[in-house]
Amino acid sequence: MIDKSALLQWLKEIDLRLKSRMTIVAVGGTAMTLLGLKPSTIDIDLCVTAKDKLKLESTAGKKFRVDFFTDGYIFSEQLPEDYVEKAKEILALKNLVVKALSPGDIIITKAARLNARDEEDIKSLVKFVAREELIERFSQVVGTYAGNEEQYRYHMEVILRRFYSQP
Predict the structure, then answer these.
(1) In sequence order, which residues have a C-beta less than 8 Å from that of residue 41 and are 6 or more positions away?
(2) Can you give the pLDDT at residue 167?
(3) Distance between CA 42 and CA 1 in Å, rounded?
(4) Do the beta carbons of residue 5 and residue 78 sit within 8 Å?
(5) Cβ neighbours of residue 115 under 8 Å, at least 6 residues apart?
(6) Are the C-beta atoms of 90 and 98 separated by less than 8 Å?
(7) What is d(CA 17, CA 36) in angstroms, rounded to the nearest whole number?
(8) DSSP per residue over 75-110, as a string?
(9) What digits encode the pLDDT tens for the residues 31-60?
(10) What is d(CA 146, CA 76) in angstroms, rounded to the nearest whole number?
């Protein structure tokens, strides 16, 4: 398990090896750990621009298992273009700006799989996202889903029923 302290130390080490400036966005459990909503994560999930991916991969090392996503295509959804602006800045170093995906966008990405662990994560995120905001954000993403669209919609309905009272 990787806690926030270990994550931040690892990111600072990467910053020292980078030769150019880049912004990365932590997603999933990594984002939740950096936001202080989860004590640790089992792996590191990061989203970067396609042009920065190779640079970051070559400096990340083998200390942790790291999954890289590019240009807002996270797991099986393409997030709206403003996902980086909506993400919360966690750390600004010499060459690396680290952000955490917004709680609403984390819920959107977890809705695709929606297993028991995802539901636990969503339970701690919903207090930061209004129901209407989540519905609006989901409507911006739903047409980009790479899997079973009907199942994805159903998962969002489950989230709304389970974690938000109906209007």
Answers:
(1) 1, 2, 7, 28, 29, 30, 32, 33
(2) 55
(3) 5
(4) no
(5) none
(6) yes
(7) 26
(8) TTEE--TTHHHHSEEEEE-SSEEEEE--HHHHHHHH
(9) 999 999 999 999 999 999 999 999 999 999
(10) 5
Rounded to 5 degrees, φ, ψ at 45 are -115, 120
SS3 47: strand
Written as six digits, the tokens of 113 are 């799989």
Residue-wise pLDDT tens digits, 132-163: 999 999 999 988 888 899 999 999 999 999 99
- Nearest alpha carbon to residue 105 among 124, 132, 84: 84
Q: Which of 96, 70, 101 is nearest to 84 (CA)?
A: 101
**Distance in angstroms (rounded) separating the CA atoms of residues 92 and 154:** 38
Cβ proximity of 159 and 114 under 8 Å = yes
pTM over 0.90: yes
